[in-house]
Design brief:
CATH topology of the largest domain: Topoisomerase I, domain 2
Shape: globular
Low-confidence stretches: 406-410, 434-440
Strand content: 15-25%
Largest sheet: 6 strands, antiparallel, barrel
Number of strands: 25
CATH class of the largest domain: Mainly Alpha
Helix content: 25-40%
CATH architecture of the largest domain: Orthogonal Bundle
Distance between the termini: 77 Å
Number of domains: 5
Mean pLDDT: 90
Bound molecules: zinc ion
C-alpha cells in the first residue's frame, strides 16, 4: 500500500500526476470546493471581524468521508491543488475540515511534468496564510455586495435578480458603451485617391496615392460637391514625385500568453468565448491522453498574469527555433517580457510543457478545439523567442500642380503613396497576431503591403490612370466583445486571471447582457439593473474604486495589509449607501393603456427573472397576466400569433404567442415581412 496521499481537485489531474509519482503515492480528487459560504444566508459575521461562517457544500459529505478513509494509515498527506489563491484556499479548507492538527503539506506546480512535480515535492511547504487571507477577503466582499444588493433589485425591479461586485462594473462598461453608440451621430467625409504610373516604362507600374494636403492644409472634405470640384481641378494637372522617404521598421513579437491575452486571441482567431477558452486550456493543463498509458499535461497553468518563462523552457524554444526555422531566427539574447506591476504570485506564462510535442505530432489525440488552442499557445510561445520581423516602408510625396494654376488660387495638391515590403519574416514565420479590434489598422497595413511602389526618382513625372473620390462615414465605438471587454477590464485594473471569464459568464447568465454575433449587447433588464446600481451605489460599482479594491486584495496576498482592514474600509461607506437605498427605493410602476380582459382594470408592465410581461394592476385580487409580444408576426403561414421573447438555458429565443397550438421558434427576431 502507498505510504503517501496526494489530494488534488480534479480527477484528470489526479490521473496525470499519479503516473508521474508512481506506486508510493495514492492520488485522489476532491472534486473542487468542499466547503463554502451558505447559499441562503449571509454567512459573514459583520460584528466579529467579518469572519466567514463556512458550511459543507450540499452533496459533498460523501467526498469528505472518502478522503478521510483514504488518509487512514498514510504517513504523509500532500495537497496539490492549483497554484493560485483559489487552489491554496481549497487545499486549506480540506486540511481544516479533515486533518486539523495533522501534518499536511502543500505542494504547488505550474505544469504537470515529471520535473515540475518532483521539484514541487522537494519543496513541499506549509500553507501560505497570506494567499488564503486574500481569497477569503474576496469571497467575503463579493458575498456582502451580492447578499445586500440583490434584495434591492427585487424591491425596485423584480424578485430573483442578483448583482455582484465586479460583474456589475463589467455590466456598467457595457451599458455606458451602448449609450455612447446611441448618442453617436455619423459624420460624412470624402477621400480622394489616384492610381498613378510611370509613363515611359513598359509593364506594370501602377500604384495608389491618397490626397493628403491642399496648399499645406490637411485635407478635410465633408461634401460630395467639394470632392467633385477638387477632382475637376485635378484633371489635367501634372503629378510629380516630390520626395521619397524610406524607413526600416521592425515589428517585435508579442509576449507569450497570459490569461487575458489568451482569451483575447482565442476570441479574435476562433471566436471562442472566454469561458470556452478556459475550459479547453484547463483540459490541456490537466492532461490529455496522447497514446501513452496515462494523460499528459500539455501546457502550463492557465490562470496567470505573469509573462515570465523558465530558463530551461527558453533554452528548449531557442533550440527548436534553430532546427525548424534556422539559426538566423534566434535573437542573440532571449527575449524578456515584463510583468505588470499588479501581477500575482510567482507564475509563469502559458506555454507548452514540452516543445518536442508539436501540434502536428499530437494532433490525432486532440479534438478540433483542443488542437486549435494548443497550436495557438505553442506558436505564440515560439514566436515570443524569435527575432522581430523587418519591413522596408516607403512613403512618396507627390505634388499635383501646374500646368495651369487654379482660378480660385488653389494650386498645390499633395498626395502620399505608402507601401511596405517584408524584408525579414522573423517571428511572423511562426505566428501572426490579428487583433479583431485593430482590424482596421491591420487592413491598412495589408493595403500598404499590396501597394507595390515602383522605383521612382525625385522630380519624376507620373501618369494619372484613375481619379476616385470615395464617401465614408465616421463610425461609432464598437460594442464590446469578450476580447475587447477583457482588454478594457485589464487596462482598468479590474479583472484578475481567475475573474475575466466568470464576469462575462455571469452577466450573460442573468440575461443582463446578450452575446449577439460575438458582441455584448446590454438587455433592457441589464440597463435597468445598471441604472439602479449607478444611482444608489455609484461608488461601489465605480471602475477606479473596484480597481483599488483589487489592489488591496493583492496587498493582503503579499501580507502588507490585513483582510479585516480592507473589509472594514469597504463596509462602512457601503452600509451608508445601503441604508439610504433601503429607505428610498420604491417599486417602479410602468403603466400601459391596455385593460385587463378579466376585470377591466389597467395592465401594468412587470419584470420577472425572465424579462418583462403585462400584469393586472389589481394583482393579487386579479392574477391575470399576459406576455408582451414583439409585434412581429409568427413565421408560420396563416398563424395569427405574434412572436414573444422567451428564455431557455441556452439563451433567448422567440416563440409564437399561439403556443402550444403553434410551436414555431426562432433564434433571432425575423423582420416583419409586409
Ligand atoms: Zn384583472
Ligand atoms: Zn405561430
Amino acid at each position: 500500500m502507498s505510504k503517501n496521499l496526494v489530494i488534488v481537485e480534479s480527477p484528470t489531474k489526479a490521473k496525470t500526476i499519479s503516473k508521474i509519482l508512481g506506486d508510493d503515492f495514492r492520488v485522489v480528487s476532491s472534486m473542487g470546493h468542499i466547503i463554502d459560504l451558505p447559499a441562503k444566508k449571509l454567512g459573514v459575521d459583520v460584528e466579529d471581524k467579518f469572519k466567514p461562517v463556512y458550511v459543507v457544500i450540499p452533496g459533498r459529505k460523501k467526498i469528505l468521508a472518502q478522503l478521510k478513509k483514504e488518509a487512514k494509515g498514510k504517513e504523509n498527506i500532500y495537497i496539490a491543488t492549483d497554484p493560485d489563491r483559489e487552489g491554496e484556499a481549497i487545499g486549506w479548507q480540506i486540511k481544516e475540515k479533515l486533518f486539523k492538527g495533522k501534518n499536511v503539506l502543500r505542494v504547488s506546480f505550474h505544469e504537470i511534468t515529471p520535473h515540475a512535480v518532483a521539484e514541487a515535492f522537494k519543496n513541499a511547504r506549509e500553507f501560505d496564510v497570506k494567499m488564503i487571507e486574500a481569497q477569503v477577503g474576496r469571497r467575503v466582499l463579493d458575498r456582502m455586495v451580492g447578499y445586500f444588493l440583490s434584495p434591492l433589485l427585487w424591491k425596485k425591479i423584480a424578485r430573483g435578480l442578483s448583482a455582484g461586485r465586479v460583474q456589475s462594473v463589467g455590466l456598467r462598461l457595457i451599458v455606458e458603451r451602448e449609450r455612447q453608440i446611441q448618442k453617436f451621430t455619423a459624420n460624412e467625409y470624402w477621400e480622394i485617391s489616384v492610381e498613378l504610373f510611370k509613363p515611359k516604362v513598359s509593364g506594370q507600374s501602377n500604384f495608389c496615392a491618397k490626397l493628403d494636403k491642399i496648399d499645406n492644409q490637411k485635407v478635410e472634405i465633408s461634401r460630395n460637391q467639394d470632392a467633385q470640384s477638387i477632382c475637376d481641378q485635378l484633371k489635367g494637372k501634372e503629378f510629380r514625385v516630390l520626395e521619397i522617404k524610406k524607413t526600416e521598421k521592425k515589428r517585435y513579437p508579442p509576449a507569450p500568453f497570459i490569461t487575458s491575452t489568451l482569451q483575447q486571441e482565442a476570441f479574435n482567431k476562433f471566436r471562442f468565448n472566454a469561458s470556452k477558452t478556459m475550459l479547453i486550456a484547463q483540459q490541456l493543463y490537466e492532461g490529455i491522453d496522447i497514446g501513452e498509458d496515462n494523460p499528459v499535461g500539455l501546457i502550463t497553468y492557465m490562470r496567470t498574469d505573469s509573462p515570465n518563462v523558465a530558463a530551461e523552457a527558453i533554452q528548449e524554444a531557442r533550440e527548436h527555433i534553430g532546427r525548424s526555422f534556422g539559426k538566423n531566427f534566434i535573437p542573440d539574447k532571449p527575449n524578456v517580457y515584463k510583468a505588470k506591476k499588479s501581477a500575482q504570485e510567482a507564475h509563469e506564462a502559458i506555454r507548452p510543457s514540452y516543445i518536442c510535442r508539436s501540434p502536428e505530432a499530437i494532433k490525432d489525440f486532440l479534438n478540433h478545439d483542443q488542437i486549435r488552442l494548443y497550436e495557438l499557445v505553442y506558436n505564440r510561445f515560439l514566436a515570443s523567442q524569435m527575432k522581430p520581423a523587418e519591413f522596408l516602408a516607403t512613403a512618396v510625396d507627390i505634388l499635383a500642380d501646374k500646368p495651369s494654376p487654379c482660378p480660385q488660387g488653389l494650386g498645390k495638391y499633395l498626395f502620399v503613396a505608402s507601401g511596405s515590403r517584408l524584408v525579414f519574416e522573423g517571428f511572423l514565420a511562426a505566428y501572426n497576431k490579428i487583433q479583431a479590434e485593430e482590424k482596421e489598422d491591420f487592413d491598412e497595413e495589408k493595403e500598404k503591403a499590396k501597394n507595390v511602389i515602383p522605383p521612382l526618382e525625385q522630380g519624376e513625372l507620373l501618369g494619372l490612370k484613375t481619379l476616385t473620390p470615395s464617401q465614408h462615414f465616421t463610425k461609432p465605438p464598437p460594442r464590446f466583445s469578450d476580447s475587447s471587454l477583457i482588454k478594457a477590464l485589464e487596462e482598468e485594473g479590474i479583472g484578475r486571471p481567475s475573474t475575466y471569464a466568470p464576469i462575462i459568464y455571469t452577466i450573460i447568465l442573468r440575461d443582463y447582457v446578450r452575446r449577439i454575433k460575438g458582441y455584448l449587447n446590454p438587455s433592457e433588464l441589464g440597463i435597468k439593473v445598471n441604472d439602479m446600481l449607478v444611482e444608489y451605489f455609484p461608488k461601489i460599482i465605480d471602475v477606479k474604486f473596484t480597481a483599488a479594491v483589487e489592489e488591496k486584495l493583492d496587498e493582503v496576498a503579499e501580507g502588507t495589509l490585513s483582510r479585516v482592514k480592507i473589509l472594514e474600509d469597504f463596509y462602512l461607506p457601503f452600509k451608508e449607501s445601503l441604508d439610504f437605498a433601503q429607505a428610498n427605493i420604491v417599486k417602479e410602476i410602468i403603466t400601459t393603456d391596455q385593460l385587463c380582459d378579466k376585470c377591466g382594470k389597467p395592465l401594468i408592465v412587470k419584470w420577472g427573472r425572465r424579462g418583462k410581461f403585462l400584469s393586472c394592476s389589481a394583482f393579487p385580487e386579479c392574477k391575470n397576466s399576459k406576455s408582451i409580444t414583439s409585434g412581429v408576426k409568427c413565421g408560420v403561414e396563416n398563424c395569427p400569433g405574434e412572436l414573444i421573447e422567451r428564455h431557455s438555458k441556452r439563451g433567448v429565443f422567440y416563440g409564437c404567442s399561439n403556443f402550444p397550438k403553434c410551436t414555431f421558434t426562432s433564434r433571432d427576431l425575423p423582420e416583419n415581412k409586409e
